[in-house]
Structure formats: C-alpha cells, structure tokens
Specification:
The strands form two sheets. Strands 1-7-8-4-3-5 form a six-stranded antiparallel beta sheet. Strands 2-6 form a two-stranded antiparallel sheet. About 35% of the residues lie in helices and about 25% in strands. The chain contains five helices and eight strands. It has a single domain, classed as Chemotaxis protein chec (3-Layer(aba) Sandwich), CATH 3.40.1550.20. Strand 3 and strand 4 form a beta hairpin. With about 160 residues, it is α+β, with helices and mostly antiparallel strands.
Length: about 160
C-alpha cells in the first residue's frame, strides 16, 4: 500500500524522486513506473499502478457507450493519463501540464492514499488536510469494519 507523506523537490532537470516505499510497492506489483493524471477533485496529481488505471478504464467501459458521462470520464482521466517510468535513481519527470494543474513550482508532497497516491503542492495540501480531517470527523460513522467469516470473531 501507499502510506505516509513524503516531501521531495524537483531537480535542475525537472525530475523528482518518488519515495522508496512507493517505488517498492510498485515494483512488488511488477511495475517500474507510475500512471499520473490531474485530479478532478482538487489541485493535485493522482498517481496509481497500471493495474489500477486498467480497473478505472474497465469501469468507464462498463458505461453505455452512447452516454455523455462515459466520454466525460474517459476524457478527464484516460486522455490526461501519462505513464511515467522510473529512471535508474527512482525519479520521474512530471509534465509541465501536471505541475501547473497542481500549482507545483519546486517542492511537492507525495501523499499515500492506500491503493493510490497523490502529489500536492505542500501549502495546498496542508489546507486540504485541515478540511479533510474536519469532514472525516463528521463522517466517521460511515467507516465500517467488515466482518469476515474466516477470522475467529464471535467464536
């Protein structure tokens, strides 16, 4: 899983090092890179494995091919997605378009989200985190534990 938050900076050639734990997770899944696209929920960059983007694509493909919303999702996610391979030092080159979307100039935060991660401009993320924490607190009753039959609960 992608967990925790890490700060890294662009180098002189516009590359950034992806956190080692994130690279390791992707490597364990069989990937030497990451898929990135502009978030349409906030001013950040969404990042995921090839497998995850394929699941998103399948979900889009399951929509009626003649419905507008299918095209909206495909355009907003798939047409904006970029497959970024790691170089020998674990760096990627984020496009100017992605950097502008997230308002990143030099420093950025890699924010673990479980099966995905996001890349944020640090000040923007700190503001978002305050709001997210308040909303998570208000909605905490919606987060439920699933009971599994194979564990020893209730025996």
């Amino acid at each position: 899983m992608f967990l925790s938050t890490y700060e890294n900076k662009l180098d002189k050639k516009g590359r950034v090092s992806v956190p080692a734990s994130f690279r390791s997770h992707l490597s364990n899944l069989g990937y030497n890179g990451v898929i990135c696209y502009p978030s349409f929920n906030n001013y950040s960059i969404e990042a995921c494995s090839q497998d995850r983007i394929e699941k998103i694509s399948s979900a889009i493909d399951s929509l009626n091919p003649f419905e507008e919303k299918r095209d909206f999702f495909a355009t907003s996610i798939l047409s904006e997605s970029t497959n970024l391979q790691f170089d020998n030092e674990g760096r990627i080159s984020l496009s100017i378009k992605l950097l502008k979307h997230a308002k990143i100039k030099n420093s950025m935060l890699f924010v673990g989200q479980g099966q995905t991660f996001q890349i944020w401009e640090p000040t923007a993320f700190e503001k978002f985190k305050v709001t997210a924490r308040k909303k998570a607190n208000l909605n905490r009753a919606n987060l439920r534990w699933e009971k599994h039959l194979n564990n020893n609960e209730g025996k």
